[in-house]
Amino acid sequence: MRNLYPDLAKIAQACPVRPGRRWLVISLSLLTLIILSTSGCQVIALEPTGIAASGEDSTPEPALPLAQAQPDRLYILSHRLRSDGLIAGGRLVIFDPLTRQEMYSVNPGTGPEVALSPDGSRLYLAGVENGQDHLSAVDVQNGTEIWRTPLNNRVKYKGGGRATIAVSADGRWLYLYSFPAGNLDQYQNASQAPYWLEIVAAETGERLPETIPLPHCGSATLVMAPAEAMLYVACYLSNEVRFVNLATRQVEHALKIPGAPFVGDDYLRIGGRPSSLVAMVMSPDGGSLYVVTDDLRIGLIEVAGRTLSQWIDHRQLDRVAVFNDSVALSADGARLVVGERIDDEARGTTIGARLHVFDTATWGEIRQLQLDHPLHTLAIDRTGRTIYGVTTSFNGRPLPDADTLLPIRLDESGDAAIGEPLKREGEAISRLFVSP
Description:
The protein has three helices and 29 strands. The protein is mainly beta.
């Protein structure tokens, strides 16, 4: 039995008796505890209930709106650059967008990757240090490492962008997208290489011998269901969405996304090639998946029926492609933001970006905003009112510099105002996300 003296003292303080008699209250309470303990009864210490002391107003205060009660944090994952622009390591910054101040940072190594536990208490970081790839669990409040385990075959995308770690809805398991990183020479092309999900216990970091095969998947996006043991994998090599049952650790269904559902001369814009998947997000209730193609079509997948129920076509013949994974959905599911490339075809370079903001209730376009710099990745806050885009400052380094965070604020009507850019010196931002 834990020491209950502090609790008894609080009881005595709360009792409406004269100070001289409070010790009598404590004595009687202790006597009661002794009798209960010797009789084999279990004593349970109750937590405070919020009941007001005598004479105080007991009316509960109204709860604050979510955005006020738990301010957003912005998680910025970057490559650290040397003075010549080459990659020297990785960095995760936990950033307060209101004060524009860093809360703390963690350096996981090169090829960094990050995921957040469902309750927001832990970060899971992967990176390469001293030639060894690893996965670690970190306390969100202070950045303290809880455990670390070595890895061998984690997929690391050049420049980052797509998440390769997924956390189960109950927070118990981690799933790492993997392939034979050191043995690709034995395969004629990437489509022949095996891909799989490695399984790690979130509490201890123990790696399970069992894996979940995902053959011919190629580059992928992992989307976890919010309340059930299902993982959805957008496989960009095979142009399909796979439904993975995490309880049985099997792929239950593969939904092929039609490459060219529309036939006609209007589609022959880039050598007649079919469009490809570039991103996938899930509605907050877990009922729908939204897939986005590189020619700006949005497909609605009904999860229960495992069918592609609708295409929303926003293609334009003079546009080239949507940026890979530059797609974000607001926490309430009301707004979907898609980033599109603007290319200079004569020079063969990307010179800018166009943001499309869609209302998911009607799938009408609320707002279109053009940026003068390429867009590398984006996120949207929980209110759906602020978009965070990552652009480049064009400083002439050898690598593309995704070094500038650009806040874009939307009002009720969808009108946009670009906030003050924040340049991250010596960093190339690979991914960012918003969470309490």
